[in-house]
Amino acid sequence: MRSLIDFDQMTLEEWGELYDLAKDIMDNPKKYADSCKDKLVATLFYEPSTRTQFSFQAAALKLGAKVIGFSGTAGSSVSKGENLKDTIRIVAAYSDLIVMRNPSEGAAYAASLYSRVPIINAGDGGHLHPTQTLTDLTTLTALKGGAGGHTVGFCGDLKNGRTVHSLIKALVRFPGNSFVLISTPALRIPDYVKKVLEDSGASYREENSLEACIGDLDVLYMTRIQKERFESEEAYKKEAGVYILDAKKLAMAKQSLIVLHPLPKVDEITDEADEDPRCRYFDQAEFGMYIRMALLLTLLKEGKEASQPAWPRSNTDKSCGNPRCITKTEGYLPKLEDNGRCVYCDHALI
Ligand code: NCD
């Protein structure tokens, strides 16, 4: 495995090895303090982030690596109009690994085509967020004994929440999971994620009401309404504040429930509910740093390609139907399809 664009690329055996490494790092942090001391990690965050960016920077520094990067494009050549391909070629020449977050869907995959060093997808628009998925799987494994056999409720912005898309795609690979998708009709999961659920044969249902199903859940994955991905303030306001987890609803839930949240949270969990010991999102964030340490250690071992990789040629004349796809703004990218879907962002081609 060179780059991590999607959790799909990892076998469950590789996942198990990564978890074991993270566990060893948690138990023996000193052992790893210098393990990447000759490495340089670049964090290119084209979109704001606190948790994910700091979590990667902390992970790299705790392994003894050095870190460079930007947060927001204002101070970088991107603001002068530099394309993604050139930025990546330059940064790959300077560093040993690139962690990237970008608002366009499929951007991390696009970057991986032009990079001599591993790319880690730290979020590509509303598409995927595989290291949050690793964080979530680590939390389930540490707190619930494994990532299978659970009834998992996802609540909130299931349309725009990339952490939800990535985690559902991962959880269908673990036996015994069933899914309750709690959202308003306007914020249901995208069709391609629904197709993943249908193809997997896992049982799932869509719900409007959190009260109606909270008692069935082993895991409740709360999410914020992704304000920045709405077309207008009015459109956002229609959806804001619909799902609030409070003490009254938690009283209807199992004692063994755990509540997760990728964070940041806004108003979807009340302060009173926040104090309930079943809310484990701060532990979740900490687990995220350890699994990212394990990931960095694993990918940094592979070293850098001696020369620029050959990038693929277009295999279709069709265009991606997703206006937020990276192919809409980076015109040089080859058009790539697999089974009628865009290889960059998974949406249907037209
Ligand atoms: C999430 C993200 O960026 O997608 N946060 C995170 O990575 N910790 C969730 C969010 O922004 O709502």
TrEMBL record:
PANTHER family: ASPARTATE CARBAMOYLTRANSFERASE, ORNITHINE CARBAMOYLTRANSFERASE, MITOCHONDRIAL
Boundaries of every Aspartate/ornithine carbamoyltransferase carbamoyl-P binding domain copy: 2-140
Enzyme Commission designation: 2.1.3.2
Transmembrane segments: none
Aspartate/ornithine carbamoyltransferase Asp/Orn-binding domain ranges (all copies): 149-298
UniProt key word Transferase: yes
Protein task: Catalyzes the condensation of carbamoyl phosphate and aspartate to form carbamoyl aspartate and inorganic phosphate, the committed step in the de novo pyrimidine nucleotide biosynthesis pathway.
InterPro entries: Asp/Orn_carbamoyltranf_P-bd, Asp/Orn_carbamoylTrfase, Asp/Orn_carbamoylTrfase_sf, Asp_carbamoyltransf, Asp_carbamoyltransf_Asp/Orn-bd
An MF annotation (GO) of this entry: amino acid binding
Catalytic activity: carbamoyl phosphate + L-aspartate = N-carbamoyl-L-aspartate + phosphate + H(+)
Record gene name: pyrB_24
Listed NCBIfam families: asp_carb_tr, PRK00856.1
An annotated GO BP: 'de novo' pyrimidine nucleobase biosynthetic process
Pathway(s) annotated for this protein in UniProt: Pyrimidine metabolism; UMP biosynthesis via de novo pathway; (S)-dihydroorotate from bicarbonate: step 2/3
Family: Belongs to the aspartate/ornithine carbamoyltransferase superfamily. ATCase family.
Keywords: Pyrimidine biosynthesis, Transferase
Protein name from the UniProt record: aspartate carbamoyltransferase
Keyword Transferase: yes
